[in-house]
Amino acid sequence: MKNPKYRLIAEHIKQKITNGEWAVGTKIPSQRQLSEEFRVNRSTVITALEELTAEGLVEGKTGVGTIVTNSSWTLLGQGSLKNWNENLQLGPLKSSLQTVQTINDEESNPDLIQLSKGELSPSFFPKREMQTVMTKMATDFKTFGYEEPKGNERLREEISLHLSKNGLKVSPSSILIVSGALQGLHLIALGLLRRHSTLYLELPSYLYSLTLFQSLGIELKGFNMDQYGVTTKGFADFHKKKALYTIPNFHNPTGAVMPLRKRKELIRFCEENQLPIIEDDIYQELWIDAPPPPSLKSMDQHGSVLYLGSLSKSLSPGLRIGWVVGPEPVINRLADLKMQSDYGSSSLSQYVAAEWLGSGYHESHVANVRAALKTRRDAVLTYLDEHLSDYADWTVPTGGFFIWLTIKKPFISKNLFRRALKRGVLINPGSIYSENEAGQHIRISFAYEDLDRIKKGITQLEKIFINEGVDERSVPRAAKRRPKEIWG
Ligand SMILES: Cc1ncc(COP(=O)(O)O)c(C=O)c1O
């Protein structure tokens, strides 16, 4: 027997909903449009809609029309999930800060001058060497199966060797391969830190740009680096259920390097008080003037330090290859969590990374990067001197990607980020790295854009300050620029 016409209409609408064309919340065509489309009278359309309403797929809303209220999940009998939109805030993780979401979106906008990007310029990418590595891998590889829980064994051996060149002796069994240092931080937060515990960290810090730790009920307690530094003095109220997160080399966002004396003091205090340390060392190789002091991990006698590294900053973030180094039982625990979350990082990326490190190209590549970073840093400091010295002070980074600007009083503005964006320049406002920032800092990167575009970006920032309406003559000349030891 032929399907009655109202059924055909109902099936048509159902199909649109189940294949996702009409998502929950979509207003479906009006009764008049449907009756014209199917050449039926209105009452047939109404019968079809009544059937869909009875199934809970659509709902008539006065003054609006008929709205899709449920999706394929209902049809599969999956219970009461009604609308993804209603569930957006239900998971345990908070959304990123709105500014961070905007930065993430705009970082792929080619029309903007990217002074924000914490990434090497594509011109630094060692394409020829990488082609050699990938061609070799393409002939040598056997399969891309699931890797071991701690990651590809050869890669862990190569990382172990790589770290030993920087004075860190660790066996491959103490290394976990992760999809970038960020995943390492996730695993540590999920697996090793208790709810209602406290994480000490530098203020400002990269970690404030994530909401991960707070989502998990971990309080971030920042210490002003220039006032106290991360010294034992700052930890006067120390008691259990605390840990310390630190970026001792080319700190993000300030660029600071923790002096050796402070490292020794810190490691001694943390060991005496059983305060575990998360050492985020992903910029370590990118020194410009002199190699930084030894890592905290290399001074760690008692397994207090979890050490994070990555290829993101020195080679390419798209590989998503990073590592966590720590005591074996801790690494085993993190490896188990990693298996539960993704069964391991991409085997393809791990092969490439192992071949890359094993090829010997890495050292010469990083040496080239350092030289190029030096040229860029020096040029950008000159641009800053020429264009922004009336409006800001800054510290001279001795490595890494970033210059941290402190805006002078009359020009402090919470809207700097938006104003710069309007002028086609993406910057990172200090507010994403701190809890109490009122527009007095910005972070700019000298690693990503070409120098002429960086200069353009800086002149746009200058125009913003000029348009602020403050009499330039009333602005004190910039203090003579001098490197400042933030942990001093
Ligand atoms: C201090 C710090 N840690 C971790 C990360 C994340 O790096 P990855 O790409 O290795 O996940 C970043 C990225 O900007 C960073 O600046």
Overall tally of structural domains: 3
CATH topology term of the largest domain: Aspartate Aminotransferase, domain 2
Overall, the morphology is globular
Total of helices: 16
Structural class: alpha/beta
Major β-sheet annotation? 7 strands, mixed
| Share of residues in strands | 5-15%
Main sheet: strand order: 4-10-9-8-7-5-6
For the record, give the distance between the C-alpha atoms at the N and C termini, rounded to a whole number: 87 Å
Mean pLDDT over all positions: 89
InterPro entries: Aminotransferase_I/II_large, HTH_trans_reg/aminotransferase, PyrdxlP-dep_Trfase, PyrdxlP-dep_Trfase_major, PyrdxlP-dep_Trfase_small, Tscrpt_reg_HTH_GntR, WH-like_DNA-bd_sf, WH_DNA-bd_sf
Keywords: Aminotransferase, DNA-binding, Pyridoxal phosphate, Transcription, Transcription regulation, Transferase
Protein name: PLP-dependent aminotransferase family protein
Cofactor: pyridoxal 5'-phosphate
Spell out the key features of this protein.
Arc Repressor Mutant, subunit A, binds pyridoxal-5'-phosphate, Aspartate Aminotransferase, domain 1, four-stranded antiparallel β-sheet, 488 residues, alpha/beta, Aspartate Aminotransferase, domain 2, 13% strand
Description:
This protein is α/β, with parallel strands linked by helices and 488 residues long. It folds into three domains: 83 residues, Arc Repressor Mutant, subunit A (Orthogonal Bundle), CATH 1.10.10; 135 residues, Aspartate Aminotransferase, domain 1, CATH 3.90.1150; 210 residues, Aspartate Aminotransferase, domain 2 (3-Layer(aba) Sandwich), CATH 3.40.640.10. The chain is 38% helix and 13% strand. It is built from 16 helices and 15 strands. It has a seven-stranded mixed β-sheet, with helices on both faces. A hairpin with a 7-residue loop joins β11 and β12. Pyridoxal-5'-phosphate binds next to α9. Keywords: Aminotransferase, DNA-binding, Pyridoxal phosphate, Transcription, Transcription regulation, Transferase. One of its GO terms (molecular function) is DNA binding.
